[in-house]
Amino acid sequence: MVIHIKYKNKNNVEHLNSMLGRRNQIEIELEKNSFSPGETIRGRIILKLNKPVHGKELLIIFTGQKINRGLSPTGQLFREVHTCFKKRVQIDSEKEYYDGNMYVFEVEIPEDILEKAKNSEENLFPLGISKRIIKEYESIGRAEWHEEIKWYIEARLKKQWGKTIKKRIKIDIS
Q1: How far apart are CA 140 and CA 156, in angstroms?
Q2: Do 61 and 85 meet the contact criterion of CB atoms below 8 Å apart?
């Protein structure tokens, strides 16, 4: 069964969207998903809103997360995640944001990002075991660990009241 509804004004559309359960969303569209150090990430943000939202700011956040996983010398499995890189770019400031608004953005990737991320100084694992000790035990076959870095682009619309509207997508940097 298909129902056709004619809209007399914008308020009817907003009311219908909220009745159908459409939630406020942000879409991120990138020119590509794989990058090299020194390149520029280019894309656009598209707002999908039920009704106008009074926002404090619209941000793009470029983040690198280092993930350490493994087996400690005591036989415990561990997983540790920490931020090894973060760059915030303000796209717009406090104002009313509307459905369909589109914003173009660019974020520069530093030339030395991979080295800095790999050498970031977050060396404590759970239980206070340092990376050096893990490597020593690993050399004699008593521990193992794996390290990887994941990269994300996140768009956030911080609202005056209520929950921040956000969307995060994974990208590759090599």
Answers
A1: 46
A2: no
pLDDT for residue 17 is more than 70: no
CATH class of segment(s) 21-173: mainly beta
- Both structure tokens of 20: 């159908």
Report pLDDT digits (tens) over 44-84.
999 999 999 999 999 999 999 998 887 766 777 777 788 99
Q: Where are the domains of the chain?
A: 21-173
164 and 156 Cβ atoms separated by less than 8 Å: yes
Whole-angstrom distance, CA of residue 66 vs CA of residue 61: 16
Record the pTM. 0.75
Return the residue matching tokens 């894309």: 43
Measured CA to CA, the distance from residue 99 to residue 53 in angstroms comes to 9
- Tell me the HSE value of 57 on the side-chain side, using a 13 A CA sphere: 8
| Cα separation, 169 vs 151, whole angstroms | 9
Q: How far apart are CA 164 and CA 148, in angstroms?
A: 28
d(CA 93, CA 79): 37
